[in-house]
Amino acid sequence: MISAYTNARLIDPASGLDTKGTLIVNNGKIADFGPDVTVPDDATVTDCKGRVLCPGFIDMRAHSVDADAALAGGITTVILQPDQTTLIDSDPVVERIRRRAEDTHTVNVYPMGAATRGMEGMELAEIGQMKASGAVAFTDCRKPVSSSQVMRRLMEYASYFGAVIVQFPQDVGLANGGIAHEGEIATRLGFAGIPAMAEVIQIERDARLSEMTGTPIHFALISSREGVEAVRAAKERGVKVTCSTAPHYLHLNDNAMEGYRTFAKVSPPLRSEEDRLALIAGIADGTIDTVVSDHDPKSEDVKRLPFGQAAAGIVGFETLLALALGPVHAGKVDLITMLKAMTATPAALLGVPGGKLEAGAPADLVIFDPDKPWRIDREAFRASAKNTPFDTLPVQGQVWQTIVGGKALYSGE
Amino acid sequence: MSTQQTDTQSYPRAEVSPPSGHLFPHKHLLGIWNLDPTAIKHVLDVADAYVEQNRQPKKSSPKCAGLTQINLFFENSTRTLMSFEIAGKRLGMEVTSMATGSSSIKKGETLLDTAATLNAMHPDVLVMRHADSGAVKLLSEKMDCAVINAGDGRAEHPTQALLDALTIRRRKGKLHGQTIVISGDVAHSRVARSNIYLLNAMGARVRLVAPPTLLPKDVDRLGVEVSHRMDEGLKGADVVMMLRLQQERMQGAFLPSLREYYRFWGLTRDTLKYAKEDVLVMHPGPMNRGVEIASDVADDLDRSAIEEQVEMGVAVRMACLDILTRNLRGEDAV
What we know:
Number of strands of chain B: 9
Largest sheet of chain B: 5 strands, parallel
Number of domains of chain A: 1
EC number (chain B): 2.1.3.2
CATH class of chain A: Alpha Beta
CATH architecture of chain A: Alpha-Beta Barrel
InterPro entries (chain B): Asp/Orn_carbamoyltranf_P-bd, Asp/Orn_carbamoylTrfase, Asp/Orn_carbamoylTrfase_sf, Asp_carbamoyltransf, Asp_carbamoyltransf_Asp/Orn-bd
Helix content of chain B: 25-40%
Radius of gyration of chain A: 21 Å
Subunit structure (chain B): Heterododecamer (2C3:3R2) of six catalytic PyrB chains organized as two trimers (C3), and six regulatory PyrI chains organized as three dimers (R2).
Protein name (chain B): Aspartate carbamoyltransferase
Shape of chain A: globular
CATH superfamily of the largest domain in chain B: Aspartate/ornithine carbamoyltransferase
GO molecular function (chain B): amino acid binding; aspartate carbamoyltransferase activity
Oligomer: heterodimer
Helix content of chain A: 25-40%
Number of strands of chain A: 18
CATH topology of the largest domain in chain B: Rossmann fold
CATH superfamily of chain A: Metal-dependent hydrolases
Number of domains of chain B: 2
Shape of chain B: globular
Largest sheet of chain A: 8 strands, mixed
CATH topology of chain A: TIM Barrel
CATH architecture of the largest domain in chain B: 3-Layer(aba) Sandwich
Distance between the termini of chain B: 39 Å
């Protein structure tokens, strides 16, 4: 079966291509694309009406598959975190998740495995076994591997398998008991704080361990100006570090906690305005490599509690594009850079298919209108929970179609 | 947008009903942060009258007869709980108290379930203390009645700040222009926070004196002076408010020992010499004698207002109960 997407603004962030044209899909794969492509007679034609057509988003950090929500967000590949009901710390669990995703023919799912057994930071998890079963990276999720010795061994061992290690950069000692960014707002609201230095100390230690072992390291969810600077300095030294952040850190600062709003409770915490601006600048200059949703559905039962007891987390799939486009519309980050952080870069980092417009590549695509204004409405979410601090926020940029393996699995207005 | 600019959103203003004519236009008393000087002054004025009533042989009045007050304390307290009980009874309220240690609630129902249960009993005032900052505000959102915060986490303890202010106003004649030192464990203290907001609102000059480990980050941005030394910090003080030091602060490595704390930050006759001659010494209680305050300072009848604070506590709480139940008694605009 042949489909043609005509009148599209084709963007391939990997190559920098940005042109009006047509893309042909044949048998679930990209057959051809460009400004002068002729549409075969037997093709089913979709007129994109000038909308952007680019590789589907590869969301490098999600705590739930939530396929319907992912598709509505233009996400074609979900990288599942190991903190599932059954912890992903052995190869049978990895296999089960891979098989379930393949059987349901929906969004692509690749799990990350736990880096240490039980994510307890003491013994190495079976990285080789899990990698052979399809785990794409290894992380203890929101628990940093705090022992330097374990981290060193982990990196040395992982290098043999070429396994990617993802660290949550937060020094456990400094963060101890904290629930919010340490600063004026936390002081006034009466919260124990997590200083930005907790992030820096972990980044700097692990960057040194990376130098020592030669193993690359990826830091998930940078939240502070100092964190961005630490990563930038490590990169300048030639250390193989990469890092990500999430759209809520680009849109909110710790003021969002005012009134004890638990929807603004995330880990790492929302930080100051200065930090927010530094993160946007970090994406613009390439210090921050990937933008992830950190999609984390949490029921009202665990959110409608006093701030200190409430669970951290935000549902991010369906707001990923619109929020990521915020700094683009504000002129702070260019469109291709932002899209690259959600497509080609995560694909290359993890070695997963997709992320590029390339003849022969799987037709995992998203078509979106970058300018369309709409208002975020949590009631309309397809996600399994509706914990978002962005309800009613006016945004620009909406997904029109999400195509996985050549099939349009989501169509919006 | 700087971090300072959304001040008005904290403790979103309680419903104003009716919107005009009220000196205290709030449904609840959740904190001092959102009170303006007029509202604070009004509470103090009403409380002043109750001080006189409480000194009469017949202390009770049937003003709030028929109304129900529930005291719900998720954190241990004796004096604040008793103060609220006596305040309610002197106004003729039906008072029920439920005190439960902070550990037992974790096993049981959630706070909002508790709120629904209590709400179904139709109380007219709910007084609540909880170990989590913001917990009282959360509960107030689900209650139909007036809610008074009797202390939430490290966030606020508004009636303590009001009773402290009443004590100072009666002793010194005014709050405006007074130099008031708050000394001790500011980091973990809701009393300190409420007092900072209230004293700032009333035009006093607030200075914090504490070891660096017991001061929260960016506290100077709340509009206070900060010092780490008692001699420097107490200079020119009209009032010294000591905070209670929790004995377990050694565990988090905040301090090495109580002995050392007393030597450098204890309030003694010697350190008090740096303050004004007629300095007023206050403490929210219960005191750790020989830790944050020397016995002879605490017991100095000329300077210490510590017992008076307890007396003012009942009057202030009566004033709060009175003001928040006015609409129920058909007394609207004052």
